[in-house]
């Protein structure tokens, strides 16, 4: 199983979102990871504002991923990073990655060919895997994005790059791969994501009213059941 190829699994979750944790526990049980000591929940970062990002949610997701990766590098452990809306596909129970893989995309959406580094925009970071050698380069790169003085080559990052706004975490991973094309990356269809109310981004109006929020969550679960899961 893919998880056997990594030293640790970290799940980003806001502690008070017990609903998402319950859903994620069910997903872990599906692949035999519930109660596994290598799996731990990480208390997600909830910043006060957007910072250098376009919204608070993008800032929180970026900071949470970065802290998980920083901790893994300090421990010299390869890591799978899961967001708590991750839904495993059947392939997650059987598929193996190639032995020389440094970055694994287990859940993603493509705007174009993933191997076309300068043009591909890969959306989603709800299932990511990283080797220690990848972390050695990735962590400093992500840290540099938090410095407003850091300059990037617009010919590499993107032609319409706005230097005052940093990319969300999935965009940052794309930027990193463009700067380091030597990093061996593999794409495997291992996970989708669950539709649920956000708690670090901007909520819809019906998620701010308790009764309506309950109805909305039921509708989301029904929609999820009707969606194909590969």
Helix content, binned percent: 25-40%
Query: Which overall shape is indicated by the principal axes computed on the Cα atoms?
Result: globular
Kindly give the count of domains.
1
Q: How many angstroms does the end-to-end distance come to?
A: 18 Å
From the 3D coordinates, which CATH architecture would you assign? Answer: Alpha-Beta Complex
Which radius of gyration do the C-alpha atoms yield?
17 Å
- The CATH C-level name is Alpha Beta
What proportion of the residues form beta strands (DSSP E)? 15-25%
Biggest β-sheet description: 6 strands, mixed
Write the H/E string, N to C.
EHEHEEEEHHHEEH
Low-confidence stretches: 200-230
Q: If helices are DSSP runs of H or I spanning 4 or more residues, what is the number of helices?
A: 6
Q: Going across the major beta sheet, what is the strand order?
A: 2-1-3-6-5-7
The CATH topology is given as: Spore Coat Polysaccharide Biosynthesis Protein SpsA, Chain A
Tell how many strands the DSSP assignment holds. Answer: 8
Report the average pLDDT across residues.
85
Structural class determined from secondary elements: alpha/beta
């Amino acid at each position: 199983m893919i998880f056997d190829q990594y030293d640790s699994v970290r799940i980003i979750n806001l502690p008070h979102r017990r609903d998402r944790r319950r859903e994620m526990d069910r997903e872990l049980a599906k692949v035999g990871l519930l109660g596994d000591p290598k799996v731990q929940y990480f208390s997600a970062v909830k910043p006060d504002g957007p910072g250098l990002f376009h919204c608070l949610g993008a800032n929180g997701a970026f900071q949470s991923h970065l802290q998980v990766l920083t901790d893994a590098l300090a421990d010299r452990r390869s890591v799978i990073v899961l967001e708590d809306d991750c839904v495993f596909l059947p392939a997650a129970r059987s598929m193996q990655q190639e032995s020389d893989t440094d970055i694994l995309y287990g859940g993603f959406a493509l705007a174009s060919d993933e191997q076309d580094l300068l043009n591909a925009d890969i959306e989603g970071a709800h299932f990511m895997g990283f080797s220690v050698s990848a972390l050695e380069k990735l962590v400093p790169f992500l840290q540099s994005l938090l410095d407003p003085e850091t300059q990037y080559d617009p010919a590499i990052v993107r032609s319409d790059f706005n230097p005052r706004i940093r990319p969300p975490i999935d965009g940052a991973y794309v930027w990193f791969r463009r700067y380091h094309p030597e990093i061996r990356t593999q794409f495997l269809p291992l996970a989708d994501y669950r539709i649920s109310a956000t708690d670090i981004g901007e909520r819809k109006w019906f998620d701010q009213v308790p009764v309506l929020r309950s109805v909305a969550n039921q509708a989301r679960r029904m929609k999820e059941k009707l969606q194909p899961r590969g």
